[in-house]
Amino acid sequence: MKSLIIVGDGMADEPVPELDGKTPLQVADTPAMDRIAREGRSGLFETIPADAPTGSAVANLSVLGYDPRIHFHGRGVLEAASLGLQLEDTDLAMRVNLIAVMDGKIASHSAGHVSDAEAELLIRAAADHFKSWQIRIHQGLSYRHVLILPRGSPALKCIPPHDHIGERMEDRLIRPENHEAETTSDLLNKMIMESMNILEHHPVNEKRIREGKLPGNCLWPWSPGRKPAMQTFQELYGVRGAAISAVDLIKGLAVYAGMDVIHVDGATGLYDTNYEGKADAALKALENHDFVYVHVEAPDEAGHEKNLNLKIRCIEDLDKRLIQRVLEGLGDKIDETVISVLPDHPTPISSGKHTRDPIPVAIRHPGLEPDIVTTYSETAAKQGALGMLKEDAFIKLALGK
Description:
alpha/beta, CATH 3.40.720.10, Alpha-Beta Plaits, eight-stranded mixed sheet, 15 helices
């Protein structure tokens, strides 16, 4: 039996007044997701433990059956793995965003979704400057990059910038959690302030401002950690897996899990991602893998932007351009494949922040009788036969175990 998991990052939500108390999932036209629910079983899944941060790394670890309380060591180490960076045991790795700071406040966690080409020039300038500080900065995609500090302390209190839009930057600087981390926090805060001097008048940002766009005028490091030790997916579950995502976090998680990372041209992590390319890559990967993990970031980005119409559009594009294409492409093999659809966590448009609320799950398992649920949404899933899933219960069902 083959297994396919499709994750619409952040597509779960809360009741929205503009939608008469319904959620984006409830009003979006999603015939493919509804089919999976109608022909399968539904339920809820606690992906973020009460004592864990509400981040995508934690949530996706849970979806894959890893206990994030043991295996979460910051998203920086996962994104470093995606970029092929080799970490020493004493290296501190952090995610570092290119953000926009306007009038002393965080205006955008993504520098207005700065392009890869623009980011390359900005990151190159910053990396050259901070090289003498023993800080290594490596380019990722768009606003998402990686910082490595040899012998840095991970005992830092950092904030994810997407959760603090509109707040004063200087009120959210890094704080040490113990005395030993003070040197690291001081150095990184100095870097944040210095990065604004380097980037503020960079030609890329001057051009973006002339065009009415937000600048990428500040480096913001967060989610610190050192490299984890994880069992591979093969060791845990005896299956060969592959991952398809535009996001370095997911790619790095796949690397540590021993899964093959499949590149798709035009996969961006935004609403303009190559949905069809991801669908075709998933179908091809299923030919020589037991398990394929497809991750789509677009709904989460729309949630962070508090853009209701865009979030609904992203959900519908995921359904029609990716999931429906996969279902049709499987043909007769659909009854030889366990197909699951779920978000990793909610990203409500009311707050633009991740929450730890349980997420809706639908699993089409050819060996199990369908339950009474006929549509896919947060409300419908509550009526499903799967009940409330915790820890590795979901992945075992999704793998047909």
